[in-house]
Structures are given as C-alpha cells and as structure tokens.
Specification:
- It is a single chain.
- The chain is mainly beta.
- The protein has a domain of 87 residues.
- Helices cover 9% and strands 31% of the residues.
- The radius of gyration is 19 Å and the shape is elongated.
C-alpha cells in the first residue's frame, strides 16, 4: 500500500521525472538478447532504451532506435544512434560515435573521436581509439587495437593481438591477425593476409 502511494506521489508532484525516479517507476524492455523483458528506461538525452544494469551518463546521447544493455557503459559526449547497440561489458566514451547498425560488445572499448558505423562489429577485448574509423562490414575483435588515424573498412578484419595505427588503412577482404602490425601510411587491401609477427609500414 505504501509503495502504491509513493508511485502516485511521484506522478502527482514531479512534472519532470529524473533518471532515478524513472527507474523507480518500473518499466521493462526486451532487447532480444534471450533474456526477455528486463528492467529498463528511455535515456533522457535521445530516448533510446537503456537496461537498468547499464550505465549511460546524462551528457551521452542514445538515439531513439539505439540500445544499451547488459553492463555496458556510455559516457562523456559519446553518441550511440541509428540502430546501433552497445552491450555486455563494452564501453563507449569520450567523443566516440557509434551508429547505423554497428555493435560494440563483450569487453570492447571505443573512445576518443572515433567513428564506428555501418554493420561493424567490435568485440572481444578490442580497442578502437584516437580518430580511427571502422565502417562498412568490418570486424575488430580479440585483443586487437585500431587507433591513431587508422581506417578499417569494407569486409576487413583485425583480430587476435594485431594493431593498426597511425595513418594505415585495412580495406577490402584483408585480414590482419596474430601479432601483426600495420602502421605509417601502409595500405593492406584486396584479399591480403598479414599475420604472425609481420609488420607492414610505408
């Protein structure tokens, strides 16, 4: 009975409901991750659905069709919009933009002034930072690092402990894996594979 009266008091006395009070007035949402409807709320900056287990700072933007769930974090001036999803223990921070159908999951980190868009998947313990761009159908996973002014696009894949940085490009169906490094002004494209302890630079 007291709980019902408290909810009525929230509706009767607060014209602008804060994030904490919105959680108090319980709502649920199904993120289609196999867990069914879970406690969630719509982020005040953008209206996208955020699971109550996730953390999104007030300064961050989550667009109306974007989703943040699991134990994910979106902070500072980061923007997640379009049909993008951030979930599991992933973090998107600084001024990073994740949009279109991009997904950031597992323990991946996306920060800096990065753009991640298209049908990209950033997963595992991967890090995308600096002013890097990852787009189209690219995959960045494992313990890979993509940073600096690097570009990974098309159907390219960067995985394992590989690093792509500075002004390097990985495009086409190229794959960079193992402990390989691609940096400088190097371009790896077509069906090229760079693996092991190889270094490609220019």
């Amino acid at each position: 009975m007291i709980f019902s009266l408290d909810i009525k008091w929230v509706y009767d006395n607060i014209s602008i409901v804060s994030e904490t009070e919105r959680e108090f007035v319980m709502t649920t949402f199904d993120f289609n991750d196999g867990n069914g409807p879970v406690p969630a709320h719509q982020h005040l900056n953008g209206g996208g659905w955020v699971a109550n287990t996730a953390t999104v700072e007030d300064t961050a933007y989550v667009g109306p069709c974007a989703r943040v769930y699991g134990n994910a974090e979106v902070s500072e001036n980061a923007r997640v919009y379009g049909n993008a999803e951030v979930f599991d223990n992933a973090e998107v921070y600084d001024n990073a933009w994740v949009f279109d159908n991009a997904q950031v999951c597992d323990n991946a980190w996306v920060g800096g002034d990065v753009l991640v868009f298209g049908d990209v998947l950033v997963f595992g313990n991967a890090l995308v930072g600096g002013v890097a761009r990852v787009c189209d159908n690219a995959l960045v996973g494992g313990d890979a690092r993509v940073y600096g002014n690097a570009l990974v696009c098309d159907n390219a894949m960067v995985c394992d402990d590989a690093k792509v940085f500075e002004d390097a490009w990985v495009t086409g169906n190229a794959k960079v894996s193992g402990n390989a490094m691609v940096y400088g002004n190097a371009e790896v494209s077509g069906n090229a594979k760079v693996f092991g302890d190889a270094e490609v630079t220019e």
